[in-house]
Design a protein that fits this description.
Elements (H helix, E strand, L loop, with lengths): L6 E4 L15 H7 L1 H4 L4 E7 L27 H11 L3 E7 L5 H4 L4 H5 L35 H4 L8 H17 L4 E5 L16 H22 L4 E6 L3 H6 L4 H6 L5 E4 L11 H10 L4 E5 L4 H5 L7 H14 L4 E5 L6 H7 L6 H4 L4 E3 L11 H4 L11 E2 L5 E6 L3 H6 L3 E11 L7 E5 L2 E2 L5 E5 L2 E6 L7 E9 L10 E11 L3
Parallel strand pairs: 1-2, 1-8, 2-3, 3-4, 4-5, 5-6, 6-7, 7-8
Antiparallel strand pairs: 9-18, 10-18, 11-17, 12-16, 12-18, 13-14, 13-17, 15-16
C-alpha cells in the first residue's frame, strides 16, 4: 500500500524571502508557512533547495544567501528536515531543473555566465538576434521579440549539452548525500523548456538517460544510508504537453525511474479531464499521481471572477482531482494573504469526505491558466480559453463536477445548483436554451439577470459526478444573430448549512 500523501506542500522557498521573513530567524522561518501545515492534512513537505547552483569549486551554492537579511539562522536545509521529522511529515528536497528567473533578474549563476554556449539562446548571447519583424519590440534582455517564448527562456540551460546534464547530476549528488531527505523532486515545470525549440523530440532519450542517472545516483546514496531515496517528478499536465517539451514520462514510469508523479502547473489546466491521462498512466505502473492545484487567485483572474471566490474555486478544483482518481493534492507556492483561510483549506482539500458539503464553483474544462511563466511562457504548454463561442453553433461545454451531486440531492443536502452563462451581443428580448447531458432545462428555470448574463437552476440528475456536457442554444425570441456569443460559464454547487 502506497504512503498516504493527502496534501504535498511545496513552499517554493518562500520562507527565506526577506519580504516574508525580514528577521531571518529560525522561528520566523518556520512560522512563515511550515507551522500552519503542522497537524493539517499536509503529509509531505517539499522544500525548494534552489536552482541547482554549484560554486566554482563544485560545492553547493547556499540557497537564499543572495536574498537573506542579516541575522542568518544557520542551515535552512537541516532546520526544515528536523522540523518535518518532529511533525512526522515526509520531507523532500525540490530541485528546479531549469529555472529561468534570470531572464529578467539578470544572470548571476557562475556556470551560465562562464558558458553562454550551453544556454538555449544563441552562442553569441547576449548580442542582438536577427529575429525582429518591422516595428516589433524586443525584450530587455536577450534581444528576442517581446512576445516570444524565447524572450522568456533564452537564458535557460540546454540539456542537449552533456556538460549541462553533468552539472545538474553533480548538484543532485551533493544535495542528497549531504542531507537526509526522504526523497528528491525533479521539478520539470519551473520552467518547462530544456532544449532549443524544434529539438525536443530528438532529445527525449537524452532526458530519459538523465533521469536514469539521477535514479542511479539516489539508489546508491540510499543503499549507503540503509534507506531508499524516493524520486518524484513534477511534469506538465498531460503526456502530450510533456512530450512536446522533451519529457517521455511514460518511459520513466515503465522503467521504474520515479516513485511518485506530480502532474500539472500551479497556473494551468485547473479542470481538464485530460489530467486523468497521467493518473491512469501512473496507476498502470503502480506509481501514485498527485495533481497540482493552482495558486489562489489565478483561476479567479483567468475566469473573471472575484478573489472572494478563491475558496469555492480551490475546493472545486481539488474535488475534481479526487473524482479523476488522483492520489492526493499538490500545492506549489501557495502563500495567501489570509493565512487563516489558507490554513482552513489545508484541513479540507486533502480528503473528498471533508470537501463534501462545502460550496464549490466549477468552471469549464476549456481554458484557464497561463502555463508556468505568464501568458507568453505558458503558451508553450497550455492553450488559453476557448471562449467566446457563437451561440448559433450550439457550443457544447465540457465541465467536470467532483461532488456526488446526485447523492447529495437524494439526501436533501443541496441548497441549489446554479449555472451562470455569460453572453454578448444579444438583444434584451432574446433568450437561450440549455441542455445538460442531453436533457433540456425548463425555460421557466432560466432567467436573464443582466444584459450579459443568464442564470439557470439545474437538478441532479441530469447533472452528475464526473464529466458533464452543457450545450447552449438559441432560445425564445432569438433571431439567431451570428455575432451573439457565449463568453463564459460558471457552475455553483451550494449546500444547506444548518
Amino acid at each position: 500500500m502506497s504512503k498516504q500523501r493527502r496534501i504535498i506542500y511545496n513552499d517554493d522557498g518562500a520562507a527565506e524571502k526577506p519580504s516574508h521573513n525580514p528577521e531571518a530567524s529560525a522561528e520566523g522561518f518556520l512560522a512563515a508557512y511550515f507551522n500552519s501545515a503542522v497537524g493539517s492534512q499536509v503529509d509531505s513537505w517539499f522544500y525548494n533547495v534552489g536552482n541547482g547552483w554549484l560554486t566554482e569549486e563544485g560545492d553547493l551554492y547556499p540557497w537564499g544567501a543572495r536574498r537573506q537579511e542579516p541575522g542568518d539562522f544557520g542551515d535552512a536545509n537541516q532546520l526544515i528536515i528536523e522540523a518535518a521529522r518532529q511533525a512526522e511529515m515526509e520531507i523532500f528536497a525540490s530541485l528546479r531543473m531549469n529555472d529561468n528567473h534570470c531572464f529578467y533578474l539578470g544572470i548571476e549563476e557562475p556556470f551560465r555566465l562562464q558558458h553562454p554556449d550551453l544556454l538555449i539562446g544563441e552562442e553569441y548571447w547576449p548580442g542582438a538576434y536577427p529575429h525582429l519583424l518591422d516595428g516589433e519590440q524586443h525584450c530587455d534582455k536577450g534581444g528576442y521579440p517581446e512576445d516570444s517564448i524565447m524572450g522568456r527562456y533564452f537564458c535557460g540551460l540546454n540539456f542537449a549539452e552533456p556538460a549541462v546534464r553533468q552539472y545538474r547530476l553533480d548538484f543532485i549528488g551533493q544535495i542528497c548525500s549531504q542531507y537526509d531527505w526522504d526523497g528528491l523532486e525533479l521539478d520539470f515545470v519551473r520552467h518547462p523548456l530544456f532544449f532549443k525549440l524544434g529539438e525536443e523530440e530528438e532529445n527525449l532519450e537524452t532526458m530519459t538517460e538523465l533521469v536514469r542517472q539521477a535514479r542511479a545516483t539516489l539508489n546508491q546514496i540510499g543503499q549507503e544510508r540503509g534507506r531508499p531515496y524516493l524520486v518524484a517528478a513534477r511534469v506538465p499536465p498531460t503526456p502530450q504537453m510533456a512530450l512536446r517539451t522533451g519529457l517521455d514520462v511514460e518511459r520513466w514510469l515503465a522503467e521504474g525511474l520515479i516513485d511518485l508523479l506530480i502532474a500539472g502547473s500551479e497556473w494551468c489546466c485547473y479542470y481538464s479531464t485530460e489530467l486523468k491521462d497521467f493518473v491512469d498512466m501512473g496507476h498502470r505502473c503502480d506509481v501514485p499521481v498527485y495533481m497540482n492545484c493552482p495558486l489562489p487567485g489565478d483561476p479567479a483572474e483567468d475566469y473573471n471572477v472575484s478573489r472572494a471566490m478563491d475558496g469555492p474555486l480551490v475546493r472545486a478544483i481539488c474535488s475534481n482531482f479526487w473524482a479523476l482518481g488522483a492520489d492526493g493534492v499538490y500545492l506549489f507556492n501557495f502563500p495567501y494573504s489570509d493565512k487563516e483561510e489558507c490554513a482552513r483549506w489545508l484541513n479540507e482539500i486533502g480528503d473528498p469526505d471533508t470537501l463534501m458539503g462545502l460550496d464549490k464553483l466549477y468552471l469549464p474544462e476549456e481554458g484557464g491558466g497561463s502555463g508556468s511563466w505568464g501568458p507568453v511562457g505558458g503558451a508553450y504548454t497550455n492553450a488559453r480559453t476557448a471562449f467566446p463561442v457563437h451561440i448559433i453553433h450550439a457550443p457544447s461545454v465540457k465541465i467536470v463536477v467532483g461532488d456526488d451531486v446526485q447523492k447529495a440531492a437524494q439526501e436533501r443536502l443541496l441548497a441549489e445548483i446554479r449555472c451562470e452563462v455569460g453572453v454578448s451581443n444579444m438583444h434584451e428580448v432574446e433568450g437561450i436554451n440549455i441542455k445538460v447531458n442531453g436533457t433540456k432545462v425548463p425555460v421557466s428555470d432560466i432567467e436573464r439577470v443582466t444584459a450579459d448574463c443568464f442564470e439557470a437552476l439545474l437538478t441532479a440528475p441530469p447533472l452528475k459526478r464526473g464529466i458533464n456536457q452543457i450545450v447552449i442554444l438559441p432560445g425564445p425570441g432569438s433571431t439567431g444573430r451570428v455575432s451573439s456569443t457565449v463568453t463564459g460559464l460558471k457552475l455553483w454547487v451550494r449546500y444547506r448549512h444548518e
